[in-house]
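Record type: ASSEMBLY
Status: queued
Input:
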Amino acid sequence: MLDADFFRRWMTAAAAAVDREADRLTELDSPIGDADHGSNLKRGFTAVREVVEAEAPETPGAVLTLAGRQLISKVGGASGPLYGTLLRRTGKALGDAAEVSQPELAEALRAGVAAVAQLGGAAAGDKTMLDALIPAADALDESFDVARAAAEKGALATTPMQARKGRASYLGERSIGHQDPGATSSALLIAALAEVAGG
Amino acid sequence: MGERRVGIVLVSHSGPVAVAVAELVKGLAGGGDTAPVAPAGGTPDGGLGTSAELITDAARAVDQGAGVVLLADLGSAVLTVKSLLAEGDELPDGARLVDAPFVEGAVAAVVTASAGADLDAVEEAAKEAYAYRKA
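Status: finished
Output:
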């Protein structure tokens, strides 16, 4: 079973991963975005780490809801409301339980991913974070490591896609050949989850 | 005096754009005694982007109890307003995001709201701004 401490460690690991990979995320965001994805997420997850450590919420759902609110208020770019909605809706779906099972987390994460799709009006294959998150949430029923692999594969699969949402969609065919920064950061978030589960 | 009017919030990626559009619409609405309008553009440190804090502050500032219409330009401005509305308690009661062109919709909304129209009528006027074809 996964308790609040597990979820706090997930957020801390996610902040460390975003910190480590911020330059790469911004680099990926340069040809097809506005070159701020790494710095925006770094600001957001730094705030998440601080507030989650300071307030130490007592349930898994409360940890993710608090983290989501921080991302919505601190990021400043579209990734803020999108990741904020992902974590907040996942947290709400977990409810007040003190501990949750891995299948319960998988189901809650699918609710979070559905909320992201609704907020952005995007679907699988649009070259967005959903291309990493949808396969990861489905694979999480099996194991954390399978989910991590699915997210990474999904992020890599965005390279030949043409963007249909957000700023990159204005580039049309010129968006082809670049890995999507949002799918890449989503894979980092899932990798951080698997890292915490594995060790 | 005493009449409660619908408030308008202008959410842009850029602080100067939001401020300038607010000035433009107040001027076009006849100056003087217009409905309350507040800009919420850029990030708190003056950069490009969207700030949930500036949006909620602006919405509270223009709220007279008759509802608040939020107009947004694109991308994170739209998504941030939507996620604040989904949050439930961040924005005043009767706050809504209206699907309208940013500048034209703002003019229509403020003129209508200044005339004392209710929230539905202000929303409708802003949406109708899409019907104005330029070519």
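Annotation: The longest strand of chain B covers residues 7-12.
Annotation: The domain at 9-114 of chain B is CATH 3.40.50.510 (Rossmann fold).
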